[in-house]
Write a structure and sequence with these properties.
It contains two helices and three strands. The chain is of the alpha+beta class. The longest helix is centred in the N-terminal third of the chain and has 35 residues. The radius of gyration is 29 Å and the shape is elongated.
């Protein structure tokens, strides 16, 4: 039995200390990430609402994320529409009548 203990590798104390510090840092980071996730979820749930869209509603489409307009962004319309909803596909996805504004 003593022969087996002699042949076991010994861990360097500095390496063990580094491992312990690393483990504490990882645990602290995991805790902070979980707290930030909970905070962001509460903030999102407080400020965001489900859209209340029904068939036949007229809606405007924001052009905030569009990047295919020519000219300065300040001179483009902020919204396009109104469009009539003809089909609900999901919570945030709808089908609208096709228009040909700007093509002709």
């Amino acid at each position: 039995m003593n022969h087996l203990k002699k042949n076991l590798l010994t861990i360097n104390p500095k390496a063990k200390h580094f491992h312990d510090l690393w483990k504490k840092a990882c645990d602290t980071a995991s805790k902070c990430i979980a707290e930030a996730k909970d905070y962001n979820k509460q903030k999102y749930d407080r400020t965001c609402m489900e859209p209340d869209i029904k068939l036949g509603d007229q809606v405007l489409v924001s052009t905030l994320e569009f990047n295919n307009f020519k000219g300065p962004k300040e001179m483009t319309d902020s919204f396009l529409g109104p469009f009539t909803i003809i089909k609900l596909i999901g919570k945030n996805a709808v089908c609208r009548h096709q228009t040909y504004r700007g093509i002709l």
